[in-house]
Structures are given as structure tokens and as C-alpha cells.
TrEMBL record:
Keywords per UniProt: Oxidoreductase
Keyword Transcription regulation: no
Protein name, as recorded: 1,5-anhydro-D-fructose reductase (1,5-anhydro-D-mannitol-forming)
GO molecular function, one term: nucleotide binding
DNA repair is among the record's keywords: no
Domain of life: Bacteria
Domain Gfo/Idh/MocA-like oxidoreductase N-terminal, chain residue ranges per copy: 9-122
SUPFAM superfamilies, A to Z: Glyceraldehyde-3-phosphate dehydrogenase-like, C-terminal domain (SSF55347), NAD(P)-binding Rossmann-fold domains (SSF51735)
InterPro entries, per the entry: Gfo/Idh/MocA-like_OxRdtase_N, Gfo/Idh/MocA_oxidoreduct, GFO_IDH_MocA-like_dom, NAD(P)-bd_dom_sf
């Protein structure tokens, strides 16, 4: 990555509380946010004042042309991410972006290719990859602690809640909430297992057309394992589960997908449960440090643009499979349900 004196950042978007945490993480890494970019001048000015960032711009080019700026953090709403990524690529600035980078795999692939041609890094801020329980699960699986992986289970449910925003009038895209949830689950599954999605089946509790608040799907993975996932905004909140099941044991992470803490990790071997201690780290600082290390270190856990394209393609396949008419089992006659007809 850039090794010159250009250690400044341009922050694109001001809407989420997460952006504030990322600004603090940038400073913790010894670098400096120099510009705030937003379509709304008032929002940009307020964010600049709150976070003590000197530059304010409505035009991304003004910030990115600053020779002190080497990096862009894109936290704008999804439909604006393309604009900022392209602007950064035009100025040869490395990009860290909230996911997904686009609303379709086709557009995402185009952005990845543009960044590759420009010679810049396009990486994603994917909090699930950063959590210590998930990184520990991945390491223990690679070390053979549970034998050969057979299946992966991801389950989470809670009433729909928009992400914490700085502005009460920020639009909330509930229609795509489950779509983006499946992108995150698939990305986490690929990270944990090192396997790729190859086949899909899906079911939702909605009509065949349109979005839904509840879905279940299964993915066949390239290494022979099966991912089973359940995501819902219709249930009362329950503790999320991420489970890797092998032929010798199981790793189970509880409460890691709620955004309310690191959660816990349990290893089950020989019929006994063992709580595995994990070291909590600031996920925002961890993300910034890993991003700045690219490409000096291989991207062993960080999500790159190419990873997001794969996750988007799989999520699109899930949505397509979910919209197919399910096979009806029909009803069972009460007279024959016990195993035979009666006179």
C-alpha cells in the first residue's frame, strides 16, 4: 500500500455512528482524517466539528486531490458507494468501504475491476470477520480441533431495527435488509470455512414475489460441507448462533451477530462443553490496522472487493431460489395419519 507521506484520509459519508468509531480508529493507527465529504453541507459541517476534521467538501474530487490523502473510507448509503469508489480510483486512493459495495454482483464486479486497473486496494469493513470468537473458530478449524468440517449453522433473529444513525431523517432500506443479512452470513461462512458456495436451496415465509422478513436457506460448499442459515426480523430477539460441526467435535459462538458485544465461544468434544477464552479487541482499530497492512501481509482474514462479489452472487442466487414456488406436501387425512385407512 501507499508508503509515502500521504497518510491522510477522506471520510465519505457522515450518517452512521460507526463512522465516528472508524475516525477514532484511524487516529489510533497514527493517521489523520483530513476531509469530510457529504452531499449535505450541514451534515458535513456538523460531522467535521464533532470529530475535529479540518476539511469539508461536497465534491469528492476536492478532497481526493489533496496530496496528503492516501486513503478513503466510504460509509455513505449503498447507492452512493459506487460514486465514491470510482472517484477514489480516479485519484489512485486506496478504499475501505462498508459492505456491500453495490446492490448487485454485476456492478460490484465492475467496481472491483476499475480498482484493479487503477492499482488500488478495495477492501471492506466486515465486522463479523473481525470478532475474536470468529477468528478463533477459523484458527481452531484449520488446526484440526474438530476434525473434518461437515456443516456450518448460522441463526439469528430479532425485530427489525435500523442501524444507529446520526440523522433521524436518514432513509432506512428495510426492503433489502434480509438480502444484506445473507451477504454478511455468506461472507462469514466463506471466511470461517475457506470454502465457496456452489449450490443453493431457499425458503421464505412470504409470497413468491417481493421481499420478506424471514428466510431459511442451505448452501452446498466446495469442500463438501453444508451451510444452513436462518435469518428473521419476525421473531423476538434470541441469542445468535454460529456453529461449525466437524466429525470429531463442534465449535459454537453465541451472541456474536447482535452487534452488542463479542459474544462467547464454546468447544464441544467427547460430550463435554468447554468455554474458550477469547481476547476482546476493538473491531474498528483491528480493521484499520489490517487494511493498512495490505498488501505487505496476505489478506488472510480481511474481506476484499472480490470477496464481496462472490457473496453478492450467492445472495442473489438465494433470492432467486426463494422466489421459486415450493413443492406442496399437501394435507394428511386424519383417518390415514396413523398408518392406514379405517372403514
Amino acid at each position: 500500500m501507499q508508503s509515502s507521506e500521504a497518510v491522510g484520509w477522506s471520510v465519505m459519508g457522515t450518517g452512521t455512528i460507526t463512522t465516528e468509531h472508524m475516525v477514532a480508529a484511524i487516529r489510533s493507527a497514527g493517521q489523520e482524517p483530513l476531509w469530510v465529504v457529504s452531499r449535505n453541507r450541514q451534515y458535513a459541517a456538523h460531522f467535521s466539528q464533532d470529530m475535529q476534521i479540518p476539511g469539508v467538501a461536497l465534491d469528492a474530487r476536492r478532497a481526493l486531490e489533496d496530496p496528503r490523502v492516501g486513503f478513503a473510507y466510504v460509509s455513505a448509503v449503498r447507492d452512493r458507494r459506487r460514486h465514491y469508489i470510482l472517484a477514489a480510483a480516479a485519484q489512485r486512493k486506496h478504499v475501505l468501504c462498508d459492505g456491500p459495495i453495490a446492490g448487485s454482483s454485476r456492478l460490484a464486479a465492475s467496481l472491483v475491476e476499475t480498482c484493479r486497473t487503477a492499482g488500488i486496494t478495495l477492501a471492506l469493513h466486515q465486522p463479523f470477520r473481525t470478532l475474536s470468537p470468529h477468528q478463533t473458530m477459523r484458527r481452531l478449524l484449520l488446526e484440526g480441533e474438530i476434525g473434518t468440517l461437515q456443516s456450518l449453522l448460522i441463526a439469528r433473529g430479532a425485530p427489525f431495527q435500523p442501524p444507529p444513525n446520526r440523522h433521524a431523517d436518514e432513509a432506512v432500506d428495510r426492503g433489502n435488509a434480509l438480502f444484506e443479512a445473507s451477504i454478511d452470513s455468506i461472507d462469514l461462512a466463506r471466511f470461517l470455512t475457506g470454502q465457496e458456495p456452489v449450490a443453493v436451496s431457499a425458503l421464505s415465509a412470504s409470497p413468491a414475489q417481493g421481499e420478506t422478513d424471514q428466510q431459511s436457506y442451505a448452501l452446498g460448499l466446495s469442500g463438501g460441507a453444508v451451510l444452513q442459515s436462518y435469518e428473521s426480523f419476525t421473531t423476538a430477539e434470541f441469542e445468535s448462533i454460529v456453529m461449525l460441526a466437524g466429525d470429531r467435535g463442534t465449535l459454537i459462538a453465541h451472541g456474536t451477530l447482535s452487534g452488542k458485544g463479542a459474544g462467547t465461544l464454546v468447544r464441544r468434544l467427547n460430550g463435554r462443553n468447554e468455554l474458550i477464552p477469547v481476547r476482546e479487541r476493538d473491531p474498528h482499530v483491528t480493521t484499520i490496522e489490517a487494511f493498512l497492512a495490505l498488501p505487505r501481509k496476505p489478506a488472510t482474514w480481511m474481506s476484499l472487493g472480490e470477496d464481496n462479489v462472490i457473496a453478492l452472487r450467492a445472495a442473489e442466487a438465494i433470492r432467486a431460489a426463494r422466489n421459486k414456488r415450493p413443492v406442496s406436501i399437501g394435507t394428511v387425512d386424519a383417518k390415514t395419519s396413523a398408518g392406514g385407512s379405517h372403514p
